[in-house]
């Protein structure tokens, strides 16, 4: 199997890009086209570290492979800086959907933090409206080109600021108008979800779905707080749940593992892990296990029955796509089409769509994989 980072990959003779995929952990400000960043920066009078699209793409990728979540997050100063107007937000949201559709995504949930896009004078409401307009334009453009896709918003509050209750209320206000869930993101170490208990209490009272960045830049305490304080239905990354696994012995391909109480709860309750293999390597989230994809605990979690999903996190910073992430995993762990299908079904089941729409999405995926065997 040959992996082409800019093109397609074939598994068992089938086009991986053409298969229907679900993207649950995909940041809007982490997926801007470098050429668009150049255009928007020029219009806004913002200096950039490179003067052409290829050079800027290289800069994002180099910064993204820092090995530190804090350093990785610094690249967002550029992408957030150029998206402070309604026109800019609408454009990048439209292009975001077009890029997902080209990657074979049929359903996506795009997360972004409205509070980071009001420096140019937009209100929070206007920012959400601008993004929704762009998403709908992107869906229409994709349909015109023969691709069906739906993209919903997840509104994110920054965990190191104090606007989470305000963003939670905004998310609920936009329920049934394109927003399907709430998230917190940003520097994880030292900023437990418990700091935002008021927002999470409000969301629970409104029966509004929550995913929480946890188990990426911090460990089990962060995951525990996401579940207990945040009532998270999914874990943003969550890869460090593997710290609660004790490998007793290995014999050939057989591994005996003892699960701690937290890991057992996450597995048995089928709380989805929004794993992002390349990003997890770039931010150092899996440094305890090694430096290569083959060291990532993804396969161990999958074999133990965790609800693993595959995601890009930030397409621009990790210079990747969902097709590429799946291809890398298939190469590292010898996965076939049945495994790729399982990851998509996990993601569809964990999406924040109503049950009827989740079932339709599952049928779309199952039918497409069945036709390609």
TrEMBL record:
UniProt EC number: 3.5.4.4
InterPro entries per the UniProt record, alphabetical: A_deaminase_dom, Ado/ade_deaminase, Metal_Hydrolase
One cellular component term from this protein's GO annotations in UniProt: cytosol
Pfam families: A_deaminase (PF00962)
Top EC category: hydrolase
GO molecular function: adenosine deaminase activity; metal ion binding
Keywords: Hydrolase, Metal-binding, Zinc
Single GO BP term: adenosine catabolic process
Protein name stated in the entry: adenosine deaminase
Taxonomic source organism: Microbacterium lushaniae
Lineage: Bacteria, Bacillati, Actinomycetota, Actinomycetes, Micrococcales
């Amino acid at each position: 199997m040959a992996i082409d980072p800019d093109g397609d990959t074939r598994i068992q003779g089938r086009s991986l890009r053409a298969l229907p995929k679900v993207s649950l952990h995909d940041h809007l400000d982490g997926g801007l086209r470098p050429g668009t960043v150049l255009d928007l920066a020029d219009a806004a009078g913002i200096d950039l570290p490179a003067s052409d699209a290829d050079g800027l793409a290289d800069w994002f990728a180099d910064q993204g492979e820092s090995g530190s979540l804090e350093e990785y997050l610094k690249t967002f100063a550029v992408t957030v800086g150029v998206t402070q107007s309604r026109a800019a937000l609408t454009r990048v949201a439209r292009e975001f959907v077009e890029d997902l559709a080209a990657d074979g995504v049929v359903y996506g949930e795009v997360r972004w933090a409205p509070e980071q896009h009001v420096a140019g004078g937009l209100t929070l409401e206007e920012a959400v409206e601008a993004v929704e307009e762009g998403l709908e334009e992107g869906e229409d453009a994709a349909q015109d080109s023969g691709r069906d896709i739906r993209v919903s918003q997840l509104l994110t509050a920054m965990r190191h600021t104090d606007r989470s209750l305000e963003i939670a209320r905004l998310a609920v206000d936009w329920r049934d108008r394109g927003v399907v869930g709430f998230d917190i993101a940003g520097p994880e170490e030292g900023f437990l979800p418990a700091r935002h208990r008021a927002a999470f209490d409000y969301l629970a009272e409104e029966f509004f779905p929550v995913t929480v960045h946890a188990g990426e830049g911090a460990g089990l305490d962060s995951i525990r707080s996401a579940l207990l304080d945040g009532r998270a239905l999914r874990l943003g990354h969550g890869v460090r749940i593997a710290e609660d696994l004790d490998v007793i012995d290995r014999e050939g391909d057989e591994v005996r593992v003892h699960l701690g109480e937290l890991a057992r709860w996450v597995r048995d309750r089928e709380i989805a892990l929004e794993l992002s293999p390349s990003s997890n390597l770039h931010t150092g989230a899996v440094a305890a296990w090694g430096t290569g994809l083959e060291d990532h605990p993804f396969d161990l979690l999958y074999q133990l029955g965790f609800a693993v999903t595959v995601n890009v996190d930030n397409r621009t910073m990790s210079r990747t796509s969902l097709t590429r992430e799946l291809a890398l995993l298939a190469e590292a762990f010898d996965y076939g089409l049945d495994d790729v299908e399982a990851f998509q079904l996990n993601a569809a089941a964990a999406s924040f769509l109503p049950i009827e729409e989740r079932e339709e999405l599952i049928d779309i995926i199952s039918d497409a994989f069945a036709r390609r065997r």
